[in-house]
Amino acid sequence: TMSESKAVELFGGALSCKIPSQWRDVSLVRQVPDNQEVYQDCTENTGAVLVIEILEHQSDVSDEEACSFFFRELADANGCSCSSAGKSGSVMHESQVVKLLLGSGQNRDDENETVEGTVPSQWKRRSLFPGIVINSGTVGCDNNTQSKQSEPIACCIMRGSQKVAQGKDTDASGRARDIKAKWIRIELCALRLTNVDVDLLITMSTPQLGNAEENDNDECLDEGYSDVFRDLLESLNIRDWSLFGG
Q: Using CB atoms within 10 A as the burial measure, which of 84, 113, 143, 230 is most buried?
């Protein structure tokens, strides 16, 4: 069941989106880099973590390669392990790229000449659709906004699984200890804002129950996109483009 959600302002109100009401701002308990906003589920022990980060646009990575590029970067950062059977600790289940002009979203159920390519039917049916395409340009715009909206935005969305070791591999006295790896469900969206030279990366990581050695069949992790991720994308709005230095 979908929990109650709340609207949160990100990066001083320049961005906004909806997240579950029980999720907390991680910057209240530890330092978070200036280019990131991090929220975590604190009540249901899911350990789900949301990271929204502003990155310099990777101009040498094509839109079609963007999902696998950012997924690999995350795998490296997570130190993904391989199972004893030698299976990869990083599995992509699905990825898709759609290029959309800002403002084209109001007619997303119609054939729309401002959409390059078709919006996948499951996006329309299940709200897996970046809200900025619908909402941006309606709040807090400056005079330069139109020029920044002139090119389609590539929305690169994927889901996958990564096997990540949980906890430290040494104890307090420095002795090695056996740590269990868990499968982490990854839902990722990269919005390629080429006009402001930014890749806006949204990553949601949700640990799965049980440890990876007991549960080494990644098929069971392929559950489709979560309601939380869909709600977040649908509600995402860029309210102030000057955040990106424009």
A: 230
pLDDT tens string 20-44: 998 999 999 999 999 999 999 987 6
Q: Count how many residues are written for the chain.
A: 246
CB-CB contact of 159 with 193 (8 Å):
no
* Contact between residue 17 and residue 230 where contact means Cβ atoms under 8 Å apart: no
**CA–CA separation, 42 and 38 (whole Å):** 12
Q: What is the rounded average pLDDT of the residues 108-129? A: 44
Question: Which run of H or of E encompasses 135?
Answer: helix 132-135
Question: Does residue 8 contact residue 17 with C-beta atoms inside 8 Å?
Answer: yes
Helix (H) or strand (E) holding 162: strand 153-165
What lies within 8 Å, CB to CB, of 165 at 6+ separation is 79, 81, 179, 180, 181
In this structure, what are the phi and psi dihedrals at residue 49, rounded to the nearest 5 degrees? -130, 130
pLDDT grade, residue 242 (50/70/90)?
A: confident
